[in-house]
Amino acid sequence: MRSSRRGGEGRAAWVHALAAAVALSSSLAPSHGALAQTSQAPAGKQRSFSVPAGSVSAALVAFGKQAGVQVSYVPSVAAGLTTSGVNGTLSPDAALSQILAGTGLSFKMTGAKTVVIEGSAGGSSEAATLPGAIALDTIDVGGSATGAGYQGTPDWVYETPASVSVVTREAIQARPTRDTRDLLANAAGVYAGEGNGSFPTVSPNIRGLQDSGRVVVSLNGARLNAQRGMSFGAGSGSYQSNSGQAFVDSAFIREVDISKATGAKAGDAASLGGSVAFRTIGADDLIAPGATTGVEINMLRGTNEYDFQGSALAAVRISESLALTGGFSKLKVGEYEPGKEGDAYAFNNSLGRDTWSSLLQLEFDNREDFKASIMWMRQDLGFSYANYNDVGNHQDVLTDTVTAMFDWDPSSELIKAKATLWLNDTRTDELRDSRRSGGATSQPPDTFLDLDHRSFGGTLENTSRIETALGGLTLNYGAEAFRDKANSSATSETIAENPLWETSYTAFNPPGQRDVASGFFNGELKPASWITLSGGVRYDWSRLKGTPSYYDTRTTSTSTPDILAQAVTTWGAWAQVNNVDLYNLRRAICDTGINPRSGRAVTASQRASTCATFSAVGEAVGLIWYNAGSVKVAGTTTNVTTYPEYELDIDRTDGAWLPSAIIELKPVDWFRPYASYSQSFRPPTILESFLMGGTPGDAVGTAFAPNVSLRPETGETFEIGANISRNGVIRDDDTLRVKAAAFHREIDDYIVMGTIYTDDVSTRTYSSFVNMDGPTTMRGIELEGNYDMRVAYVGAAATWLDTEWAKKTELFSNGTTTTNGDVFAVAGNVPPEFKLTVDAGLRFFDERLTLGGRYTYTTPTQTRQVVTIGSDLVVVDSTDPYSVWDLYGSYRFDEHTTLRVSVDNITDQRYVPAGGLFLAPGRTATASFQLKF
Fold first, then answer.
1. Cα–Cα distance measured from residue 63 to residue 404, given in angstroms and rounded to the nearest whole number
2. Within a 10 A sphere around the Cβ of 70, how many other Cβ atoms?
3. What percent of the chain has pLDDT over 90?
4. Does residue 865 lie in a domain region?
5. Of 579, 607, 634, at which residue does a domain stop?
6. Who's near 577: CB < 8 A, 6+ residues apart?
7. What is the enclosing helix (H) or strand (E) of 21?
8. Paired residues of 797 in beta bridges
9. Each residue of 289-333: pLDDT tens digit?
10. Which residues pair with 326 in a beta bridge?
């Protein structure tokens, strides 16, 4: 694997700086600082609280969100307890005192923004730092620690009237994966996307929608919009889906928030069907209450070419209001072996990955009304893959993500303002190995691609709370905007001689610019404790600007006539000089009638003919004589191929008004049914709008052309669902959490790869992005639940999905004859109809030891591809059904040290993951060690 051409020199200095920060934090950390506490109460400015009566656990969740503090407690201290709640404007300490009144519980402030709940027996607050404690982060920072839900999902998810899922840091660390995208695979309705063994990209599929911004992927609010049409179509050497080029290192991720629908809120501009928001760790995640420094070190080794995964993170409180966090991580995996049980086949092979990442974050909190942070994550990633004939491609990616976040929350019910500014810059260097074999030179040599995509933007929003005659009204409103810019180039020894050949390598990262802006307004009204009404509207606007070119192939024939000899001289005059022997022979025959060579007489007619040659006229070319009128030079026909270029000046805008509404009921404390409706809008991306050129190879790219008539996609989603959250179901300390939803989504003008004519070329067609003719419908049922009795737990996520595609595009059925008319070459994978994940385990020794297992079953991917069987074209499924078993375990030696082990794919199944193009790894065992101090 070649080293990165960009950023490699600066990486060493950056790593040394981070190592110094870790060493500094380590030297400052007190030996028992993690358990230091204060006895402060959570006093502060007054806030508006609306915490309903019910279970203490649910009340503490609501309090943590509304007060902006993190609440920690051991589940057993709150099990079975109820509270009368609190309503009104008062200080956080007064509100928490009312919530805990009569419960026998007390609280203690262990940090500026952290509170520990203690039992009536004076149970140590130190227990809240142990694994298994519930930590409820403030909703203001979007975080949450482990809760009682599926794979540690926090409780606020089961109080949200929408299809949302959360992957916590505990879940991330408990079951190590080769790829960040695999963290998403266990959530209901969500698929990992690529399943590409060596690709570190994240391209999530939510309810059948994938790529091209249909699902927004972000890091601390920064959109990761880079796209590359690497594989649209199906099968070897074609182009199918997986164009998302988001890169995220899971070593720095605190939480992943998954939303499966859009609404009138920040972050949903230009999204068709949801978002995946990655959020990085901060100082509070590393520094224990009462301490000023914190360090976390993780190391992992494994079998099957899982060589090493490690990270070091450190945080220090520079002052009471200022904290610095830094870290770096390393991952090295090789060319793994797929499973041996089965006969699945893939066209590509993973050749391994070697990556470095670093994080630097500065946080400011004046402990009154203002918070701010700035984060920089740099990732230097090298990875390789090969197609079916083992010809490799090697990519080096350098991506920088910078975000600045501001939060102003003064003592006013009308102001709670947030702002985010962000930048994501992704630069890819790719080497396509020479396709030549032996001495042949007809195939391309080593070819280098330089692909750049930069996005930057910002969000501004405010929340106001108003008391009305109908109840409390919360208004949220704001705006967001961003710009995408892309460019690409290619070089090789053959491109240097034929510059137009570059067009066959840059087609799927065309240059161009896209601007998106959005304004939104939504409100939430609670006319009674048992009903909540929400509604909103947003307006999305987009502009596409660029000057793409495309090429035609034109061949013309040029003919030249025969050139005839002219009457320049006589043969006799020419032969006396240029052919003397023949001249003398003929002169003798003409004068005497006897051939001097044989001594015999010739006939009278022969003598006359010979005498006539002396006066014959003609023309000589060199030593060759041509009689006048004969062909001196034969005519020729020449074929000349040219490549006319057609440049388009595209500058277009689109926009749409998008309403949304939710109604939530709460007939009892533990049951919350809801119904929702939303409209969504996705304008075409740079890739879809400016596609041009051809497939990789040494030739002028003439396969693709932009579709100037391409329209945005629009969606309409209906959903009904329910949340169940119960404590003490069978035992005093058990919990039950269930989230269920049924949805129906209809999309108009769905964009796929198809075939078009252009205004300039009417004699041939081009491949391009086109709109489907008719609606595309996606409907399904999702179920996610967990039962936890502390000594044992079992959780599951199930997804049923039915997708009906329009039968054709506007012009052709994707330019390919199929047996049944199905559209198969869609710009996105179609997930399986059914997926089930079951996760269960046991806890021993005061929950210090956890042993668990996971089972996953998936039906065939619904994406179709066309193959030739005999003389027929047949539509077949892309993947087979598969079942996978995994085992995992962890042992916490003390609050500082944890050992984790896992064995994935224990039956060594050979399969292609849903939506994947690569075979999954076979049986793989890993062991990781975590040290915190």
1. 27
2. 23
3. 54
4. yes
5. 634
6. none
7. helix 8-28
8. 784, 837
9. 889 999 999 999 999 999 999 999 999 999 999 999 999 999 999
10. 314, 360
Q: What is the pLDDT of residues 78-120, one digit of tens each?
A: 777 888 888 877 888 888 989 998 888 988 766 556 788 887 5
Distance of alpha carbon 138 from alpha carbon 272, whole angstroms: 28
User: Please, which residues bridge with residue 294 across strands?
Assistant: 315
Mark whether 260 and 200 lie in a shared domain. Answer: no
Q: What letter represents residue 17's amino acid?
A: A
Identify the pLDDT of residue 831.
Answer: 82
Gap between the Cα atoms of 287 and 419, Å rounded = 26
Q: Which tokens sit at 515?
A: 């601007």
User: 575, 608, 634: which is the final residue of a domain?
Assistant: 634
Instruction: Judge whether 786 lies within some domain.
Output: yes
Looking at residue 566, what DSSP letter applies? P
Residues 614 and 647 in one domain: no
Q: Tokens for 531?
A: 């009903």
Structure tokens at 134: 């519930």
d(CA 682, CA 716): 12
Burial of 337: CB neighbours in 10 Å, binned 0-12, 13-18, 19+: middle
Burial class for 762, CB neighbours closer than 10 Å (0-12, 13-18, 19+): exposed
In this structure, is residue 504 part of a structural domain?
yes
- The CA distance from 209 to 915, in Å, is 12
Q: Give domain status of residue 223, yes or no.
A: no
Q: For residues 552 and 566, state if they share a domain.
A: no
147 Ramachandran zone, left/alpha/beta (phi>0; psi -120 to 50): beta
853, β-bridge pairs: 840, 887
| CB-count burial class (<10 Å; 0-12, 13-18, 19+) for 41 | middle
Total domains in the fold of the chain: 3
Which CATH number is 191's domain given?
A: 3.55.50.30
- Pinpoint the alpha helices (H) of 418-515: 493-497
Burial of 925 (0-12, 13-18, 19+ CB in 10 A): middle
Specify whether 467 is located in the same domain as 608: no
User: Residue 75: its pLDDT value, please?
Assistant: 66
Q: Are 300 and 260 in contact (CB under 8 A)?
A: no
Which three-class secondary structure state does DSSP give residue 361? Answer: strand
Same domain (yes/no): 575, 535? no
User: Is residue 355 within 8 Å of residue 380, measured between CB atoms?
Assistant: yes
Lowest mean pLDDT, pick from 355-359, 594-598, 752-756 = 752-756
Spatial distance between the Cα atoms of 715 and 680, rounded to a whole number of angstroms: 5
Residue 622's pLDDT is 81
**Domain containing residue 323: CATH number:** 2.40.170.20
pLDDT at 4: 43
Backbone angles phi, psi at 30, to 5 degrees: -70, 150
Contact by Cβ (8 Å): 516, 542 = yes
The pair of structure tokens assigned to 434 is 């020479």
Task: Please list the alpha-helical segments (H only) found in 358-433.
Answer: none
Do residues 659 and 680 share a domain? yes
Is 227:820 a contact under the CB 8 Å cutoff? no
Q: Which two tokens stand for residue 220?
A: 């601390």
pLDDT of residue 745: 97
pLDDT tens-digit readout, 234-278: 333 333 445 778 899 999 999 999 999 999 999 999 999 999 999
Choose among 837, 842, 807: nearest CA to 824.
Answer: 807
Host domain of residue 703: 246-423+447-556+642-932
In the numeric block, which tokens belong to residue 199? 């690709």
**DSSP per-residue string spanning 99-141:** HHTTTT-EEEEEETTEEEEE-TT---GGGGGSTT-EEE--GGG
786-811 pLDDT per residue, tens: 999 999 999 999 999 998 877 665 44
- Same domain for 380 and 250: yes
Q: Are residues 647 and 590 in the same domain?
A: no
Nearest-10 Cα torsion for 839, 840, 845, 847: 50
Q: Are strands 322-333 and 253-259 parallel, antiparallel or unpaired?
A: unpaired
DSSP string, 193-235: S---TT--EE--EETTEESTTSSEEEETTEE---B----BSSS
